[in-house]
Amino acid sequence: MEISLKNITHYYRDGTGDQVTPLRNIDLTMRSGDSLVLYGPSGCGKSTLLFILGCLLRPSEGQVDIDGRSLLHYGEKELAELRNRKMGFMFQACYLLPTLTVKENIMLPFWIQGGKARDGRTEKKTVELLLEQLELTERADFLPYQLSGGQRRRVAMARALANDPEVILADEPTAELDEEKKDFVGKWLGEQAGKKKIVVVATHDPQLAVYAGRVYSLSQGQLQEKILGKGAVYSS
Ligand code: ADP
Ligand code: ADP
User: Fold this and answer.
1) Which ligand is nearest to the CA of 150?
2) ipTM value
3) What is the pLDDT of residues 192-231, one digit of tens each?
4) Which of 184, 183, 147, 95 is closest to 138 using CA atoms?
5) 99 alpha carbon to ligand 1 midpoint, in Å?
6) CB-based contacts of 194: which residues, under 8 Å, 6+ apart?
7) Does the C-beta of 151 come closer than 6 Å to ligand 2?
8) Cβ–ligand 2 contact at 181 (below 6 Å)
9) Which residues are near ligand 1 (CB < 6 Å)?
10) Residue 163 burial (CB < 10 Å; 0-12/13-18/19+)?
């Protein structure tokens, strides 16, 4: 799979009608097996770039190609299918459904569209494995309000991965996690790229940078490649 952004500019109108332009003339190509950490302070445009990569937002200007085909040629229905089948999105606000248990929240992608797991048994196994990997097994039947912030974040991550997506987009995945879990999540995201997925993580946590193939900082609408220090030895 390949996602290619060409000359992407995006602007919003703020409350007073002024224009905010978090992305200016961005070029970026991600292929299966690529991992990228987008680094920069809050408000610099990381989420906007993730939304565009995940086809949740069409940019104001520029071209998005998915496997060489322009996004302009996708209707809304086809776009929804692309997102449901290929993209795993972990939002900053988690967006867990409050009336569903941990296990049910993770099952959501299967309910929305029959995922790659074909029968109830395979789906159950997938969810059990994710619960185990993310240390949530004992919380499986809890409701979101009964969890700590870090646990909620891990449920959001498990849900993003349930469908075995080709693209994983994670917005501040280590917020509210302690040091040990940050490390665990970083390593784990790094491993996903090794499984031929595209992984893009937006963060202002420098600790995560060591796990990515590429690290870009986003500043004044521009991407800049950061040269990694010794930590790069551990990158995938
Ligand atoms: P980050 O993820 O790095 O915190 P965002 O992409 O969320 O940055 O935001 C980039 C800039 O665009 C910020 O100045 C933010 O206030 C502004 N912005 C984001 N979304 C909207 C929106 N829907 N309407 C208006 N301004 C927005
Ligand atoms: P985190 O992932 O945020 O570091 P932990 O998984 O280490 O959190 O959780 C710390 C402990 O506190 C766990 O036993 C967790 O179940 C418990 N806990 C935290 N908040 C709540 C809550 N609102 N309801 C029930 N248990 C909670």
Assistant:
1) 2
2) 0.72
3) 888 899 999 999 888 888 888 899 999 999 999 986 644 4
4) 147
5) 29
6) 33, 236
7) yes
8) yes
9) 12, 14, 20, 22, 40, 42-48, 202
10) buried
Domain definitions of the chain by residue range: 1-224
Q: What is the pLDDT of residue 111?
A: 82
CA-based nearest residue to 57, from 85, 31, 27, 23: 23
Q: Which residue has the higher pLDDT, 19 or 110?
A: 19
Q: Rounded to an integer, what distance in angstroms lies between the CA atom of residue 171 and that of residue 208?
A: 12
Tokens 């409350």 label which residue? 15
Using the atom order of ligand 2, give the atom closest to the CA of residue 148.
20
> Which of 101, 135, 145, 151 has most ligand 2 atoms within 8 Å of CB, for mutation?
151
* DSSP one-letter code for 227: P
Q: Taking the model in full, what pTM does it have?
A: 0.86
Ligand 1 pocket mutation pick from 11, 12, 201 by most atoms within 8 angstroms of CB: 12
Task: Report the nearest atom of ligand 1 relative to the CA of 48.
Answer: 6
Q: What does the pLDDT look like over 38-60, one tens digit per residue? A: 998 889 999 999 999 999 999 99
Would you say domain 1-224 falls under CATH 3.40.50.300? yes
